[in-house]
């Protein structure tokens, strides 16, 4: 694969961009430890009902509240008024809960549902057993979950109930700022139930089981248990950049690997398989087309996977691709550059990425477009890549995960931050995204035209 000459112009831009990048990259990676710790400057009183909850035997609930990142919100709530917490007994959250539903609640992308569900168990005022409504008619109380109400009632026997759950341990814990009542089961608001049902029916259509997916350590982004080096099928020893073909990526020429290429897997078949999955998933036709048509890129990916490397593809959806402007495609080699920037030489799933951003705030991933990295952070209970205008959300997680290739759908096309800056300086007088006229296949068309100009058709079969 040749193509070096056409990147000359580009590398000048990149060089300038790199300087810019180096000067601002120190700003990018500050961890947001305060959020992870859930603390707002130690305002909370140790005699608070929240502290009591975390210390109580309602460990399952306490754990969920922490996982849902609600401690800070609740701290603020008890700072303003008393609260009443209905705490399901542990068994209600372990043994008695539909495992699918529990999995749903714990999936990072469903954080909002989990928060809604938990806030539904809390009333923003104090209702001790003595102040419990006397009547058998139920009285609605608003909860901390917006728009959701709980019905407090009494059975004829005098037993207290909240919605359809019996209160089995009234006044289980009382503190100056609130009270906890033990209840027999989890309370599920209708909206959360609906979300779950929707997600489940979607799942059954689109599921691609992540079988044998290796566990990734979210702190290092590496496999938790690297295979012993000698074993066939183990990750290759050389960094992926050494194995990449020279070409669009601004990478050093590859050193000949010791012992030559070692073919562990049929990478080509896996690449075909994921492209196929992408096509069937729907909404990613343009990306799939590009991979089919840019045969050099697809076979490069296949080769790398064959040699034991792993890849995560951030696949922009069709809507995102349609927004690409002529301007963004005008640099020679731009389409391939764009694609390479969406390939991460690590195996990442939605879960591993979400865990990483949750814990560290901001995480930078290498891309196959050296030396550019893509920044990820937590936003709205999901993972957001890139920064500012050029950012994209993890939109369709885990479209394909086979342990070596992972495909994550995103809702934007990403550009290196520093390049965006340079471009906007250079072309400040041009409005950013006006020329965008949705049209399929624009990216590839452009590749062919640009390559045609440079007399380099041969690498792209579909340009002939
Ligand atoms: C919570 O309730 C107690 C007892 O009713 C009351 O003394 C206290 O002021 C209340 N706290 C807040 C923050 O309203
Ligand atoms: C890819 O090639 C096929 C067949 O050559 C063509 O129909 C399709 O439009 C091409 N895709 C793009 C994105 O141009």
Automatic annotation (TrEMBL):
Cross-referenced PANTHER family: FASCICLIN-LIKE ARABINOGALACTAN PROTEIN 16
Family to which the UniProt record says this protein belongs: Belongs to the fasciclin-like AGP family.
Superkingdom, natural source: Eukaryota
GO cellular component: extracellular region
Predominant cellular place of this UniProt entry's protein: secreted
Entries under InterPro entries matching the protein: FAS1_dom_sf (IPR036378), FAS1_domain (IPR000782), FLA15/16/17/18 (IPR044654)
This protein's UniProt keywords: Glycoprotein, Proteoglycan, Repeat, Secreted, Signal
SMART domains per UniProt: FAS1
One Pfam family per UniProt: Fasciclin
Function: May be a cell surface adhesion protein.
Transmembrane segments: none
Protein name in the entry: Uncharacterized protein
Protein's cellular compartments: Secreted
